[in-house]
Amino acid sequence: MDPIGVLALVVVVLAPGVRKVLDSVAYRNRARGQAEIIRARRGNALVERRR
What we know:
Number of helices: 1
Shape: rod-shaped
Helix content: over 70%
């Protein structure tokens, strides 16, 4: 097999795994952002209650 064929085979074999990792990272980033928004809203509510 020529080097380009081997490289193509490796890419095809690894592509689904890489996609799962990227999807997982994206999900975690979205969840982290949503949690930060919720904490900011709760923190703001606590400040308003203390006044």
